[in-house]
Amino acid sequence: MADLILTRTVLGVIYVSIFVLAVSGNLLVVYTVISHKAMQTVTNIFITNLAISDLLVNFTSLWLTPLYLYVGHWIWGEWLCHGLPLFQGTSIFISTLTLMAIAIDRYFVIVHHSNININDHMSMPVCLGIVTLIWALSLLLVMPYAIHMSMIFIPKPCNFWLCLEAWTMENLKSIYGIIVMALQFIVPFVIIGFSYIQIWHFLNSRNSLVARRESEYENIRKKRLLRMLIIMVVLFGLCWFPFNFLNILRDLHLDNFIKPYFNFLFLLAHVISMSATCWNPIVYAWMNEAFRERFIAALPFLKRWHRKGIRFKLIF
């Protein structure tokens, strides 16, 4: 009993910490981009889209999923029974598709248009159109999951409700799970991997147009941005893979060997996945000079640290 209380207390502290860091950090990102015209580049609009998606997760899935496991039954009504998977699934799709859009944009800008400035790429209307398409496509892909959630009443002696997936055909659930895994992770990460490998090879090629036409400073900027974007992708993949791996095991009925520990493993994987929402602002402050300067200007205590000589330092 003492171990259970300790576990719940530790997890509670972790969840609260994630919420505070993620909400404050992502709100700062959104504010920074919206309030400064110079920050409104295509890449930063995509980054803002990631921040909004992370905020959506923090005000929904971050709390409802662990509370559901803690309470043991569903107490939030039918609307949220359908809404929780919709919010969470949509957010994951938005993040992966946005990261993919950034990678594709960087690929065409750097590899195929290396003689232009790093920020001269697709027009803003096209960028906003892609963001809108990402949201619409994400909602569409998650809709079957939300539709097939159902509230099931457990009679006496329990007398409570559960919120569970209720597919008319079990094989459809497995097929949908595989499709989601492919479109949510496998396809985007293959495209992202290909794009960044090509960019990295191009920037390090002695005979590249970048080396001949651009200043050393511009090359450094591009490599620094590339490193930041790669770290964002790696962190996102590492954080969300355990959660999605457990879900695909459950959908394919391959979870028998972990069933006694499934709830604990699921909660652990959920904590790790939720931590993804607070990493990006930290990465921006660490590796992006423009974001770092805006963050320092916006937060008084960072200004004081800055005046005292305590500065964020780039290690790349």
TrEMBL record:
Which PROSITE patterns is this protein grouped with?
Answer: G_PROTEIN_RECEP_F1_1, G_PROTEIN_RECEP_F1_2
Query: In what residue span(s) does the G-protein coupled receptors family 1 profile domain sit?
Result: 25-284
| Keywords from the named record | G-protein coupled receptor, Membrane, Receptor, Transducer, Transmembrane, Transmembrane helix
List residues traversing the bilayer: 12-34, 46-71, 83-104, 125-147, 175-203, 224-243, 263-286
CDD domains xrefs: 7tmA_NPYR-like
Please give the SMART domains that the UniProt record associates with this protein. Answer: 7TM_GPCR_Srsx
**Cellular localisation:** Membrane
Q: How does it sit in the membrane?
A: Multi-pass membrane protein
One Pfam family name is 7tm_1
Q: Name one GO molecular function term.
A: neuropeptide Y receptor activity
The terms describing its cellular component in GO are: neuron projection; plasma membrane
* Source taxon at top rank: Eukaryota
Principal location? membrane
Tell me which family the UniProt entry assigns to this protein: Belongs to the G-protein coupled receptor 1 family.
Q: What is the protein name given in its UniProt record?
A: G_PROTEIN_RECEP_F1_2 domain-containing protein
Q: Which organism is it from?
A: Dracunculus medinensis
